[in-house]
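chain below, 144 aa
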Amino acid sequence: MRLALRMVPALLWMALIYRSSATPDLRGLPLVQRLGLLPHDLSPEAAWWLEMLLRKSAHMVAYAILAVLLAWALSARLPGRTALRVALATAVLYAVSDEVHQAFVPTREGRLLDVAIDGAGAVLGLLLLRPRLPTGARAPARPQ
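prediction:
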């Protein structure tokens, strides 16, 4: 029961990722410009690069959060390192399924590069979390 309850945030996050992936023409740059954080008269090349940077950063952050939520949930049942490994594998598999899903959304496309970026985000998230997870049962100390 504890694992099931801990999985709720990860599942909700996965639903948010799915919903974002199902949105045609999802762009971050116009929002950033409307908020007045960037000039409205960017060159098309600069706008393209900034949009790409925003999108890829969003991928990394989304999957870092997903991996951390999964590891936290799984640590209720699994030793720390095992929870991290399973969380990473699950996040990467979800990234693959997300890119396949995007391939069927108008104006979106599935890319293997995005899976790699998502995986890198998951790794970074887990590297930050790792010191905070228990490592599981420790071997008894040897008498001296």
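Residues 137-142 have pLDDT under 50 and may be disordered. Helices lie at 2-21, 29-34, 44-74, 80-102, 112-129.
thats it, cya
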